[in-house]
Amino acid sequence: MSSDSISFLLNWHATPYHAPIFLAQHHGFFKDEGVKVAILEPNDASDVTELIGRGSVDMGCKAMVHTIAAKARGFGVTSIGTILDEPFTGLLYLKGGVEGHPHDIEKDHFTSLKGKRVGYVGEFGRIQCLELAQKHGLVEGQDIEFVRCGMDINGALIDGRIHAGVGIESVNGVELEQWCDSVGRPTSDVKLIRIDELAELGCCCFCSILVIVNDKFLAANKEKVAAVMRALKRGADLLHKDPAQAWLDLQHVKKQFRNRVGDDKPNFWAKMFERCYPFMSRDLVNVERDWHKVTKYCQRIEVCDEGFEANYTNEFVQWEHEAQPVDPEANQVALVRPPLPLSRPLSPPPPSMPLD
Q: Domains in the chain, ordered, with CATH?
């Protein structure tokens, strides 16, 4: 049985920053553009680039550093756009630790991780952590231990398996804040040591979430790939035109984003949506300056060699591009401030919403 569906594998389980993808599906934009897209979710985030790179899946999402690493490893993948632009990423930890597993980690002192267990998602997270440890004079196995946690960084933090773990502030951090609130801890106990500041990158572009495609599929299906990107741009346009309505639409698509019956307070998914919103790309463009910085960074941590050619294109982003900030570091400082209010308050879906 054959299918003309384009398989599209997310980098993580469904998350609010995937909004342009789900909005394009919900509003029929893929169909309007003449393509059928099957959206898939991984059980292990480390599988994504390999599955796309070997052609088992046609398209998907992945962070920039992993996209570069995949190409360097011989997997045929190319980035054709960006959906989440420079989200704050680093080592998350809970102030003081958890019951039975206390610690003295300090936000401004990486060396306070001495004697601690640090969690990472996949192989290249470990490489990043190892480079930072070496930079600060910590020896793996002697001064610091790295623990692979896959997609359960928060669970490992909460049960004390690790003292700190690699995560995105607007996603994993929000989940940790939810847990703190549920057990009577202040949400301010959730702390982040930003990797971009430690690595002197100036921004968290290494963890920008990209749209990637298998190279052979791209070469044979440029019209279809262009159609997918047009649909995603229409989804992004809706998101930024009326984010509050977009949130209602997302709850139609993904049941887990909805509140429990009778609960009218914004849930942690709504908070995650609000926190991700400032980083969601308006034009979906691959930022050349970021690719240059992250390629140099990957060469420094020996993920790719000096002759590596960046595997991205803006060929399929055929619309006006947003002006890039003159000072990326100043822009990151501005994003630390609370985001501006959305066009109207986020709200749960009405009780009459069909649970389809």
A: 6-86+205-336 (3.40.190.10), 89-199 (3.40.190.10)
